[in-house]
Design brief:
The protein is mainly alpha-helical. It has 15 helices and seven strands. 49% of the residues lie in helices and 11% in strands.
Length: 351
Amino acid sequence: MIATLDGETVVKLKPVMGYMHRNHEKIGEGLTYIGCFPYTDRLDYFCAMTNNFGLSLAIEKLAGIQVSERGEYLRVIMAELTRLVNHTAVTGFLLNDMGAFGTPLLYAFREREKILDLFEAASGSRMMCNYVRPGGVREDVPQGWLDRAREVVRAYPRFLDEFETLLTKNEIVRQRTQQVGILPKALGINASVTGPMLRASGVDYDLRKVDGYSIYPRFAFRVPLGTVGDVYDRYYVRILEMRESVKMLEQALQEIPAAGPGISPKGQAIGKAPRTFRPPKGEAYGRIEAPKGELGFYLVSDGSPQPYRYHIRAPSFINLTVLEELCLGHKVADAIIILGSIDIVLCEVDR
């Protein structure tokens, strides 16, 4: 961030991007559709499962691939576990940005590890999962995995209660975050901000409700909203979203179809999508409510096994564009926590 200051007050600020650029989209145009998946893991590397999910939706639209019933449930389970990982970690990092080094971040990482253990057991990797696929997932979860997931989900509300006891009514947290970095509704909408950042400003926009993709319409959950749109609201909306994710996970883990033999489209996980395929000529856009906001994949097919054009709508990049407006008039120390409350991963900003 290049800042112009009057004393310690920010009067101008520009985020400088591009240092992490790795040519993701152009590389994707030289790979098969399935070959792109390991690269999506490295966008928002905290949220590999949801990155895989978004690309899968775009490919399924483009190629007309049907998703298996068990695969749908596993994808939603992985996505909501990913939301818990992301929101827990960003809360710990936000407190770290305020100078509360130690307890909040370590508590967050303790809980994150439990979910990463589940990801590793299912995919073989803790972070670069490369697991969700067009038609379902790469392979079914191992025996006993769902029971382990239920144990983690069952214990999560107690952790959130503990986390909130430390933070939500903490006087120092409130002084540092309330009335700081306010995002007005109109600015958020006009700047195409999405995710918890927009909902903290009171805008009721969640793709799981608006778009109803995958099997999300089957689950009962609400969309938490803020009223002020400051750093505190962005923190608290994420806490409430984690509680809603727990509710969805409880429903999904209870309702998931049992694994069945063979390759029937119902009762198993991997679907009927081939390893390589040639979608008909056309274009498709698949989008999901990723933990940071709307994550979209735009694909153009020329009938070959590789995408002719491949573009990503990255929420970290879009949400970052309002950083200057949020920081003007605040102190340097405030600018740090405002940036933290936006919740970006630089590999997704630059792609």
